[in-house]
Structures are given as structure tokens and as C-alpha cells.
Design goal:
55% of the residues lie in helices and 16% in strands. A hairpin with a 4-residue loop joins strand 16 and strand 17. It has 24 helices and 20 strands. The two termini are 25 Å apart. The chain has 870 residues and is an alpha+beta fold. The strands form three sheets. Strands 3, 4, 5, 6, 7, 8 and 9 form a seven-stranded mixed β-sheet that branches. It has a six-stranded mixed barrel with strand order 13-14-18-15-17-16. A four-stranded antiparallel β-sheet has the order 2-10-1-11, with helices on one face.
């Protein structure tokens, strides 16, 4: 039986190879894409663990002392390290620099040295690698800071370039309240070179969390709980820290007051002595009066200074976890998006491959009826006969699984990780996804061994005499088209035969349609994923958001001054004052954090800056005296609609119940919009108009950075500036990151479609070899014989392509729903090019298959095919 098995494999090597390739491609995509999301996470996890990225950072406007470190480390497992940090102006572009004090050795957030060395002297600097790439800095060059940086020296010698685990995304360095509002580079100088009396930040890590998946829900939930514990500890220190800060100036003021009192007493005594010496007569004390006047002025000054010291508030803290680091959330969302796609796209791909394989194996065993009958007549048992065909199927299936699993698990994730060039990733960390491989093995065995067993068991039930005779051909039946005489009579003989055969071999036709529809749908889905993600930014930042920048004043009463500053530029069009506040909302046990509430000063003008339209019927929405309009993703997350009531809570933990008066179309972020009268009535206070939405004439990114710097330099009341273009760029990068994955989808889908078509065509010819030989003997030319088969293939291909368009839209819709994040909605978008490419590829594949068929039919041995089995 083993010899017979080997002979059968050699005799049908094309079919055996096709089965292996179909299984291999299905497994490759299934296992590969499943492994890609975890591979991205593991690769980044390895990098942050290697360089000891802190779990939490806390910044203080009053600085930290050793007592603060001890307070933080009271939280179980916390290890803290204080550092000096501040945003300063520097470099050729005179822009914001994130400046860190370098400790040797640093226990947390260790720099990733790319060239050169670490600073050893107070006038040496380690610079961001991007400064070398973008501005051409070299080792040995001088890097200059502005005087406002308040450093011990302003010029530093560049001794090296580095990456940092705090900045994993090379395209962004975060925002700042100096320069243009965007951080240009990070830099490290010796800790003692930063002119600060105390540390301004604390890095905190938890040893037990270092090896947890940083992007997992478990890690993020644990960190939130740890931050609350850390906040409690530092909150206990607030008053004590304030007292420490005011203690020195108060002591100095008290000593000055004592000296002042002593000086006053001396003047009083001096005046009394003069009066006594003059016998009680009035005596001129001009000098003493002058001194007394000076002391009075000093007293007023001391009171002013005392009031100033007493006004010093308790420290305010800014908390930052890994999620808040520049680029970190975007990277996590990207890997999650690939993981979400992996739950749908490759599964469909694999199921299609399994279906075609099942059909191929079934046909193969049915074709071997004569051999099975012979073996049975010779006395072989049913199990022995089943062994040959199940082993044939098993070898093809297991070979496809082994090769597909290895290539999928190693090549595909490695290729995708290598495409993430803008992220700080070391060596890719690729682990075998044994769960996915196990699923692939089971599905592959069902599609191959399962199919073989099913047919063999059925066939071996028949007696040898029945098996040794070929199956009776299917009877031709009258088809529906024959009843439409005015069409039927206009068809020629070949066309009539083709249409009859289509209905005669319904199962084979259905399989061909499914194969082509599946391939078309997969190619279309690949384009659809890319198109839908790229459409998000276009719709959000061209149609929904119609302002170009957001400028925030330090105080509400400074907003008019800020408006006047930015209105002087020739790029300025118009602006709108708004109150902005962050809320969280709760309904049906679901809570959504970080919701931006915008309250425009003029609700009628607001429509010029933000488009509000119903997410279902596109009708315009308007702000009203009561209730809020919420964004689509927020409504979906909370499972609410127009007319529902939700609970909202601001950062001061003020809770209110508000009515939803509309759900607006929105693609990026979670928003709530309300009128001033709504806010006044609900929150029982006036909205604080501290933010400007600004519309500008079309400007480039370079011009926007220049504008931002000009505004901040011209008006100290500006707290920060952010441009919509930067947000749009971040969204656009999502589609670029998925580009390689989508390209792989399209290529593999195309290859799979070709193999499926080729395989089905081979089955078709094998089943109908006697029929084709008959018409060839009757005098049909080679081209006519080819068209006899090809005409059916072309009709089925057209039906399959059209069905694939519909299936592709359904599949794309499902995939992008799975790929959405908590703040991003992807609109179903498939551009015409996707349809064109899918159609052209299918046409080309069909033409290639027709050509191969033509060559094969020319070489058919008619005598061998037509001789009687008896």
C-alpha cells in the first residue's frame, strides 16, 4: 500500500502540489497574521524591559525631595528615581527641547546609545538621534540653549546621539508649553549641570509588572490601581512639602522683621533720649524721621513678601503612564488593529482554502473508484484501502501545515516588524503561536483526511462489481432558458451545450463561483482595509473638523489678548472662543474616559468650525438649551441613542445626569457638545472661555510651526498651541503602518485564487475527459474544444467576480469594525481602483488557466480516454 501511495503521488504530482500549496497559503496567512500582533507587542516589550522603561512618571511644579521618594516607595513594589527635567528653548531652530539630567548609572529609562558616548563633563550633551538625521548635527558640534533655559552654561559639546524608551516613535516628541508647542528633540546633560535646586520628576517602576504585556488590559488596569495608591501617598505630602518650601523664606522674613523691630525700638529710644535732653522741648529729628520712614517702607515690603510667600500653594502633580508617552498608544493600537484583523481575514482565507481542498480530495477519491474496486476484489480490507487515500491526504495536509506554519510564524511577523522603521525596536521577538498552529492542524486535517475518509467509507461500502464500472454520467435536463424560445433559438450549438453543462454540473459550478468570489472578496478586502483607514483622517479633518489650530490661554481673562495676537498675522481668518473640559461618561455599567466637552461662546458660529450631523441620516444637528450632542463612537460604547440619559463626571468629580439630544458623525476621538445655557444650568457655573478654535488660510507644516513660535513669543498669556494637521498626520500613519500587511493580504489572496482556479479546472477536465475526447473525435478543432470548457469558466468567473464584490464589502465592513479602537471609527470605503485590480487579476488568472487548459487538451490521448472499462 505504501508503494501504491508513492506511485499515486508521483502520478498526480500536480494535484498533490496544489493541495499542499492551498493548505500552505491558508496556514501561512492564518498563523502569520495571528502571530504578527503579538510579535509587535513582544518586540516592543523586549525593548522597554531591556532599557528599564518606568511604569509611571510624576512631575511637580514644586519639585521633589528625598521624603517624596520615600512616600512613593511606601506603595508595595514601587521603586522610585528622582530626575531633573524641564522644557527649554534651544538648537538651530530655537524650538522646544525636552531636557533631562543624566544620572550615572541611571536605573530607569536608560538611553539607547546609537553613536558616541555619554556626557562626562558639565559642558557635554547627548542629543536625540533625530537631531542628527533632520538637522545634520555631528559629534563635536556645539549645541546652544537660549538664556531663558536658565542653565549653568548655554553652549554644550555634542558627544553622542541616542534613542530613548520614553520616545518610541521617531515621528513625534510630544508637546510643550514653550517654543512652537511641539517638542523638537530630547537631550541629556549631566544632572548637576541643570540649574535646579531639586528634582522635578520621579520615575517609578514595579518589578512584577516589567515583564507583563504593556499593551494588555491586565497591565493597564494594574497600573491605574497603582497610580491611585501613589496619588494618595503624595497627596499626604502636599501640605508638608508646601511648608518645606515656605519655611526658608518665612524664616528669613521673620529674622528681617526682628531686625526691623529692633531698629524701630532704637529710633523710639533715640527720640526719647533727645526729648529728655531738651527738657521736654520739641527737638528737630530730621535724620531719625527719615530712618523711620525707610523702616516703614521696609515694613510694607516685608508684608508684601510675606503675603506672596503665604500665597504659595501646595504642589500640583502631573501623572504620566506608558500610555501617555509619545507614540506609545498609537503603536499599541496598531498591533491591536492587526490582531483584530487576524481574527477575521485569515480565518475566512483559510476556510476558503479548506473548502477547495475538501472538494479536491473528494474528487480524487471518487476518480479512483476502479482502483478501490480492484483492491477490494483482491481481498484488501476497507481499513487498508482507506489507509492509502487518507495517507495521501494526510501527507499533503501535514506538509502544507508544517511549511505554512514555519513561514507564517517566522517570515510574516518579521517582515511586518521590519516595516515599523519609525519606532524604536531592537531585534524582533517572534514566538511560536502554538494555539493558532494547533487550530490550523485541526482544520487542515478535516479538509484533507476528513474528506478522504468520508468518501472512502462511502465508496468501500459498494461491491467490487459496482466499483469497477464507471459512474453513469449525469442526465441532461431541460433548463429554464430553453423555455424562453426567442433567446434559446438565437444561441449556437456550442453556447447551448455550455449553458446545459452549467446546470448539469451544479456543484462544480458552485465551487468555482465560491473560489472566484472568495478570491475577489479577499483582494477587495485588502484594498478596503487600507482605503477605510485612510478615509478616516480625510473625513474627520476635512469635513468634520473645520478649524486649523487650537490656542489655549493661561487664564480666561487673557483670551482676548491671545486673540488679538494671532489675528495680526496674514494667515488668520477667524476664531471662536470655547470652554473645553474633560469628562467621563457612564451608562449601562460601561464607562468611557477622556471625553472632550466643547462649549462654544457662540453656538450659531460653531457650525462654521465643527460639522454636526446625524450619524445615521446625515441631517444637521444644532446645539440647544438643554442636553448634549455626543459622538458616534461614544454612543456605541455606552449603548445609547438620541433621547437617552447618561451620567457625566468631570475631573473635580462633579457628577451630573444629562440628556443626549443627538448623536453626531465623528471618526476620531470622543466628544460632547453643549450650549452655554446648558452648561450654566447643568454645572451651576459659568463656562470658562479659555480656548480658541482658529481657522487659517492654507499653510504648510513649516509655516504652522513658525506661526506657533511667533504667537508664543509675542504673547506670554498663551499656554499652548496645537494644530489639526498634526492629528491628521497621526491618523494617516495608521494606514501606512498597515500597508505592508494589506499588501501581503492582496498578494497571497491573488496567489490562492490562481491555485484554486487551476485546481478546479483540473478537476473539471479529469471528470469530463471522455466527453472532451468524444467531441474531439467528432471533428472539433483544438480551439473549439478549449472554448467548450473555457466558455463555462468565463461565465462562472463573471458570476464569481460580481458575487465577490458583494462579499468583499461585507467582509471589509466586518474587518474594520473589529479593527476599530476605543476612539477611532473606520468608514466603509473601497475606492474604484480596488474593484479594478480585483477584476483584472481574476481575468488574468482565468486567461492563464484557459491557456494551460488549451495546451493540456491538445495532448489528450483520445483512444486511452474512450476505451471501454469493461
Amino acid at each position: 500500500m505504501n508503494k501504491l501511495l508513492m506511485r499515486d503521488i508521483r502520478g498526480s504530482l500536480g494535484r498533490f502540489t496544489a493541495i499542499v500549496l492551498i493548505i500552505m497559503l491558508g496556514v501561512l496567512l492564518f498563523v502569520g497574521v495571528k502571530a504578527t500582533g503579538p510579535a509587535l507587542n513582544h518586540s516592543m516589550q523586549s525593548e522597554v524591559v531591556k532599557h528599564h522603561l518606568s511604569d509611571v512618571q510624576v512631575f511637580s511644579d514644586k519639585g521633589f525631595t528625598r521624603k517624596d521618594i520615600k512616600a512613593v516607595e511606601r506603595v508595595q513594589g514601587a521603586k522610585a528615581e528622582s530626575i531633573k527635567f524641564k522644557y527649554v528653548i534651544g538648537g538651530k531652530t530655537r524650538d522646544a527641547i525636552a531636557l533631562y539630567g543624566l544620572k550615572d548609572p541611571a536605573r530607569q529609562n536608560q538611553v539607547i546609545l546609537k553613536s558616541g558616548r555619554l556626557p562626562q563633563k558639565n559642558n557635554e550633551i547627548l542629543l536625540d538621534k533625530q537631531a542628527q538625521i533632520k538637522d545634520g548635527y555631528r559629534i563635536g558640534d556645539q549645541f546652544t540653549f537660549a538664556k531663558s533655559a536658565n542653565l549653568k552654561v548655554n553652549r554644550y559639546k555634542i558627544v553622542g546621539f541616542a534613542d530613548s524608551p520614553l520616545y518610541i516613535d521617531d515621528s513625534t516628541r510630544g508637546s510643550a508649553n514653550v517654543g512652537s508647542g511641539q517638542v523638537q528633540y530630547f537631550a541629556y546633560i549631566k544632572d548637576q549641570a541643570i540649574n535646579l535646586p531639586v528634582a522635578t520628576a520621579i520615575n517609578i517602576s514595579f518589578a512584577k509588572l516589567q515583564h507583563q504585556d504593556v499593551f494588555s488590559g491586565k497591565y493597564q488596569g494594574t497600573i491605574k490601581a497603582k497610580v491611585k495608591l501613589l496619588q494618595k501617598q503624595l497627596d499626604k505630602r502636599k501640605n508638608e512639602r508646601r511648608n518645606e518650601i515656605v519655611a526658608k523664606p518665612l524664616n528669613q522674613l521673620n529674622r528681617a522683621q526682628e531686625k526691623l523691630n529692633q531698629a524701630k525700638q532704637k529710633i523710639v529710644q533715640a527720640k526719647a533720649q533727645l526729648k529728655k535732653q531738651s527738657g521736654g522741648k520739641v527737638t528737630t529729628t530730621s535724620e531719625l524721621d527719615k530712618q523711620e520712614q525707610q523702616l516703614a517702607e521696609t515694613q510694607v515690603n516685608l508684608k508684601r513678601q510675606r503675603k506672596k510667600v503665604e500665597k504659595i500653594k501646595v504642589p500640583s502633580y502631573t501623572w504620566q503612564t506608558r500610555e501617555d508617552l509619545p507614540g506609545f498608544t498609537g503603536y499599541g493600537d496598531s498591533s491591536d488593529r492587526i490582531a483584530a484583523i487576524a481574527n477575521v481575514f485569515p480565518v475566512f482565507f483559510f476556510l476558503l482554502a479548506a473548502l477547495i481542498t475538501f472538494t479536491t480530495i473528494t474528487r480524487m477519491v471518487e476518480e479512483a473508484r476502479g482502483q478501490i474496486g480492484t483492491l477490494k476484489a483482491l481481498g484488501f480490507s476497507r481499513s487498508a484501502i482507506a489507509y492509502e487515500y487518507t495517507m495521501y491526504a494526510f501527507l499533503a495536509g501535514i506538509l502544507g501545515v508544517i511549511v505554512g506554519s514555519f513561514l507564517g510564524n517566522q517570515l510574516l511577523p518579521r517582515f511586518v516588524v521590519s516595516m515599523y522603521t519609525k519606532y524604536v525596536i531592537g531585534q524582533p521577538v517572534i514566538e511560536y503561536d502554538w494555539a493558532s498552529i494547533a487550530i490550523a492542524v485541526v482544520l487542515a486535517m478535516i479538509a484533507t483526511v476528513g474528506a478522504a475518509l468520508l468518501v472512502v467509507i462511502k465508496e468501500t461500502k459498494a461491491v467490487p462489481a459496482e466499483l469497477l464500472r464507471p459512474k453513469s454520467p449525469k442526465k441532461a435536463k431541460k433548463i429554464l432558458l430553453e423555455n424562453i424560445s426567442f433567446i434559446w433559438k438565437r444561441l449556437n450549438f456550442n453556447q447551448k451545450i455550455s449553458y446545459r453543462n452549467l446546470f448539469r454540473f451544479k456543484l462544480r459550478g458552485l465551487m468555482t463561483i465560491l473560489g472566484i468570489a472568495g478570491g475577489t472578496a479577499l483582494i477587495l478586502t485588502g484594498f478596503g482595509i487600507a482605503n477605510s483607514i485612510s478615509a478616516t483622517g480625510d473625513l474627520q479633518f476635512n469635513q468634520i473638523i473645520k478649524y486649523d489650530a487650537v490656542v489655549q490661554a493661561k487664564k480666561a481673562n487673557q483670551l482676548e489678548s491671545v486673540r488679538q495676537t494671532i489675528a495680526r498675522g496674514k494667515n488668520y481668518q477667524q476664531s471662536l472662543a470655547t470652554h473645553t473640559e474633560t469628562f467621563k461618561a457612564t451608562k449601562h455599567g460601561k464607562t468611557v474616559d477622556d471625553i472632550n466637552m466643547d462649549i462654544p461662546q457662540n453656538k450659531h458660529q460653531f457650525e462654521k468650525f465643527v460639522t454636526l450631523r446625524d450619524y445615521q441620516n446625515q441631517h444637521p444637528l444644532h446645539l440647544q438649551k438643554q442636553g448634549v450632542i455626543i459622538s458616534e463612537k461614544l454612543a456605541t460604547a455606552l449603548k445609547v441613542r438620541k433621547g437617552s440619559t447618561i451620567s457625566i463626571e468631570n475631573e473635580k468629580q462633579t457628577k451630573k445626569e444629562v440628556k443626549v439630544i443627538g448623536v453626531t458623525q465623528n471618526y476620531v476621538g470622543n466628544f460632547m457638545y453643549g450650549s452655554t445655557s446648558f452648561y450654566r444650568k447643568t454645572m451651576k457655573k459659568e463656562p470658562t472661555m479659555q480656548t480658541l478654535m482658529v481657522q487659517l488660510h492654507q499653510t504648510s507644516k513649516k509655516n504652522q510651526q513658525k506661526l506657533s513660535k511667533q504667537w508664543i513669543k509675542a504673547n506670554a498669556d498663551i499656554l499652548g498651541v496645537s494644530f489639526v494637521r498634526d492629528q491628521a498626520a497621526a491618523v494617516t500613519s495608521m494606514s501606512k503602518q498597515l500597508g505592508p500587511v494589506v499588501l501581503i493580504f492582496i498578494l497571497l489572496s491573488g496567489v490562492s485564487s490562481f491555485i484554486v482556479l487551476y485546481n478546479l479546472n483540473n478537476i473539471n477536465i479529469s471528470e469530463r475527459l471522455r466527453e472532451l475526447s468524444t467531441i474531439k473525435v467528432l471533428g472539433f478543432f483544438d480551439s473549439e474544444v478549449t472554448m467548450y470548457i473555457a466558455r463555462e469558466s468565463i461565465i462562472l468567473a463573471l458570476i464569481g467576480i460580481l458575487a465577490g464584490f458583494g462579499l468583499g464589502n461585507i467582509l471589509t465592513s466586518y474587518v474594520i469594525k473589529q479593527a476599530e479602537t476605543s476612539i477611532v471609527v473606520f468608514p466603509l470605503t473601497i475606492k474604484p481602483m480596488g474593484y479594478v485590480v480585483a477584476t483584472v487579476l481574476m481575468v488574468i488568472f482565468n486567461l492563464i488557466v484557459v491557456y494551460i487548459t488549451h495546451r493540456r487538451l491538445r495532448q489528450v490521448d483520445m483512444v486511452e480516454a474512450l476505451k471501454s472499462n469493461e
